[in-house]
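Q: Structure tokens for this one, please.
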Amino acid sequence: MNANQATLTVRNLAKSYGAIQAVKGVSFEVQPGEIFCVIGPNGSGKTTLFNAMLGQIQPDRGQIELRGEDVSGLSALALNHRGVGRTFQTLQVFGKMTVRENLIVAAQEHKGTLFSRMFEPSDSGLEDKADALIQKFHITHVADKPAGELSYGQQKLVDIAMAFMSEPALILLDEPCAGVNPKLVRDIGDLLRDLNKERGSTFVVIEHNMDFIMSLCHRVMVMVEGEVLAIGTPDEIRNNKQVLDAYLGS
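A: Here is the predicted structure, written as tokens:
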């Protein structure tokens, strides 16, 4: 594998629902260790793009490559096996399981069915890995509590930490700041920056919080009506008249 090869390459990806073209031939690359953010108004196609990249839905056309391997059409589980993690807009924690157990289950995802993952013996190695992330995410004090008893913000941290348990090459974060208070928004930004630096983690992030995006991301892609309007650094996007007219200034 070429060390300079893009972690993620999307070429001419398109998806329609009847007469509605949700994504219209989108292309971009994400480089190793990059924090790449996707913004756009509601209905711009961001979530459809994410779901197509992650095997949740099948695109009508286009190609997706992960570190040079064509993964177009693979299922979400197959992509997870190849090193793709994600968070969802809706929290995906198991409410009756402890925080630590949630993280361990996330790491076992590639091993089999949900039933087998939940009831196989816990792995001490995974427990150590879970505890390291629990400490990193500052949720040690709730590690042994059922996740369903935590505040929404704490559950959000658990959800994000779960995505890191399998040490994926690429993590896609769908609105990580949705519904959380400003302090937690800052904490999430700090955590993602630290993990990016410490582990070289590569992120693709969808988010509506513009301050968060502009302070976190190396590059930003703006989508409008299913198409790419612009890709650039935060400063380039801030000063792009088309973006200001179509989105930031609206």
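A few notes: The chain has a mean pLDDT of 90. Residues 91-167 form one domain.
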